[in-house]
Amino acid sequence: MSFREAPATVEHGERRSEPVRATLNCSTPGPAVAITGTLIMSDSKPAVCFIGFGEAGQAIASGLRDAGVERIAAWDILFPHPKGERLLRAGEAMGVSCARSAAEAVRGADVIVSAVTAASSLDAAQSVAAHLSGKPYFLDINSVSPARKQETGKLLADGARYVDVAVLGPIHPARHQTPMLFAGPHAPEIVPTLTALGMRVNVAGPKVGAAAAIKMVRSVMIKGIEALTLECFLAAARAGVVDEVAASLENNYPGLDWAKIIPYNLERMANHGERRAAEMEEVAATLRELGVEPLMTAATVERQRKMGEIGSRPSVRATLAEGGAKILNAISAAARDRH
After folding, report:
1. Which residue among 9, 106, 147, 306 has the highest number of C-beta atoms inside a 10 angstrom radius?
2. Are residues 76 and 126 in the same domain?
3. Are 88 and 113 spatial neighbours (Cβ–Cβ below 8 Å)?
């Protein structure tokens, strides 16, 4: 399979430039050779680039690395800043080439994975649009509305083969094997290559936005249940009836293990509440596009955002691995301190 439509002349042995911080020595990939318009790749594995190298980008990159993908590059807007040191170290540890810019990162890429915050998804596409060559696949895994995916697809139509991607589960521990839905006219083309690398991919349909619609609508339930878990059991903890409430829920939902669900949902909100709030704002936009008033979703946005703020406190973070009563008590105390 030819991943890219490479230019007719490409210099043999061209290498990526040095990493943004010389002290970190992020890896430099080996050479790629283009012959008569076809990119020749070792073991037929694509060169992959990540725009955004936070939790999702790092997890997928490390999984692909273990699956044998040798040439992986990354760019994150935090790289030049002190907050980016941790991201650069993660790149160094897994052998990722850390670029000085988005333009440098996408050079020679067969597959570009956009894994940024919901609010930045269009900006990420704009940062690479003028620097694309060879029509690489652009996998937009960001949790945004179908309309945003369609806008991004139109922006990149001349330079990339855009694919709407929905990640349908926690990125850890499955990493690149987390179930994903692809959509758009180019989705079927790239699926065989990615499944050969161990990715679990299904195609939702030929229309950009089809995968995003499923992701957005299911988030009403997934993130809403998280918010309800917090509100319910925060009140239960203050009333001293946590065990009693959990036991009563088992009568209505006998297949659910609330002893595991409660700490899991609280941990997810504490670690990712602010990001989830941004995603739920996209969900609200999706519902409005569908003519559904996002009453519950609007409340979920507020609850997720507040929990994200609370979850950043050291007193709460210290309890996340312990769960149970300790995390509830820490959240309760931190919530009181906010008022």
Report:
1. 106
2. yes
3. no
